[in-house]
Write a structure and sequence with these properties.
- The protein has 14 helices and two strands.
- By secondary structure, the chain is an all-alpha fold.
- The chain is globular, with a radius of gyration of 19 Å.
- The two termini are 31 Å apart.
- The mean pLDDT is 96.
- The protein binds 3-methylbut-3-enyl trihydrogen diphosphate (2 copies) and magnesium ion (3 copies).
- The site of one magnesium ion has 3 residues, from loops.
Length: 302
């Protein structure tokens, strides 16, 4: 058995090397795309390559480890989900949506390149994600790729993230029930995080029952993740989160901490994380990095 300190060091080194490897692949792939318009290229590269936490790709690689899947079989899913996520942030920041001027510690895409290029860069990153699932070289069958396209399109689109973003906008100023709010979170944020687990399962030929348990796990983690995001808007530091604080209040957003109170929201986060860890228990020791990733998220300040 490794000591706690040794296992934390091993985890940090996995986190760093996995993130670096992923960012290199992303950089190489974007460099290989032939863009027609230089400002579009700049806007797309800026949005995808400015470093975020890369949590979604990390989930994919950590889930792949449960099945001892080679990272090259997970790369298309990791690249695709991060491109969809980056596009969702570009559009989320637009004046017509959250009108947010900062993202990942830099001016948001529309501030740097204009609304026109930001809309188009978002659109382009989105379609690039699906092209990658279909064609990026990897040890995946055509059937696996088709399943992955299905998973990602449902999670990203009208029945997933886009649908949730619409509810988020429409819910402003109204009081809604706790259940309705969590339903909105599970669409706008949960759908893409759950998709990481389903995509990694599809790339790994995971048995259905295990893949379903992992989605249940992802559901708890993603709700906790969005409530944390709301808390960071209230209690976080903009120089650490890399985006404005207090924006949800300005926009009169309905958020979980606002609805049930700060302390109750923190308890909810704890309870969701502990619910998640129970779901993960039956999995083998291969889930070590997934477990540690979630412990790392529990403490997040950004
Ligand atoms: C921000 O996502 C938007 C939410 C769904 C809460 P992240 O917190 O993963 O943002 P980055 O990718 O690290 O910038
Ligand atoms: C999640 O909600 C947004 C997406 C699904 C893109 P927020 O609007 O709270 O995300 P941040 O706080 O701007 O990152
Ligand atoms: Mg938003
Ligand atoms: Mg926002
Ligand atoms: Mg937020």
């Amino acid at each position: 058995m490794m000591s706690n300190a040794a296992s934390l060091t091993a985890f940090n080194s996995w986190l760093q090397s996995t993130t670096e490897r992923f960012e290199q692949l992303l950089g190489h792939h974007l460099a290989s795309v032939s863009f027609s318009a230089p400002p579009l290229k700049e806007a797309a590269r800026y949005s995808a390559l400015t470093a975020g936490k890369r949590i979604r790709p990390l989930f994919i690689y950590a889930v792949g480890e449960i099945y001892q899947t080679h990272p090259t079989a997970l790369d298309p899913a990791a690249l695709a989900i991060e491109l969809i996520h980056s596009y969702s942030l570009v559009h989320d920041d637009l004046p017509a949506m959250d009108n947010s001027e900062w993202r990942r510690g830099k001016p948001s895409c529309f501030k740097a390149y204009g609304e026109d290029m930001a809309i188009l860069a978002g659109d382009g990153l989105q379609t690039l994600a699906f092209e990658i699932l279909a064609t990026y070289p990897a040890p995946l069958s055509a059937e696996q790729r088709l399943t992955m396209v299905q998973i990602l399109s449902r999670a990203a689109g009208l029945t997933g993230m886009v649908g949730g973003q619409a509810l988020d906008i429409l819910n402003t100023q109204d009081t809604i029930s706790e259940n309705k709010l969590l339903e909105m979170y599970s669409l706008k944020t949960g759908a893409l995080i759950e998709a990481c687990f389903s995509l990694a399962s599809a790339a790994s030929h995971a048995p259905d029952n295990q893949s379903q348990a992992l989605v249940e796990y992802a559901r708890c983690i993603s709700l906790a993740f969005q409530i944390q995001d709301d808390l960071l808007d209230i209690e976080g530091k903009a120089d650490i989160t890399g985006k404005p604080t207090g924006l949800d209040t300005t926009l009169q957003k309905q958020t979980y901490p606002l609805l049930i109170g700060l302390e109750a929201a923190k308890l909810k986060i704890q309870s969701l994380f502990s619910q998640a860890s129970q779901v993960l228990q039956p999995f083998s020791d291969f889930a070590t990095h997934l477990n540690q990733l979630v412990l790392y998220l529990q403490e997040r300040k950004k």
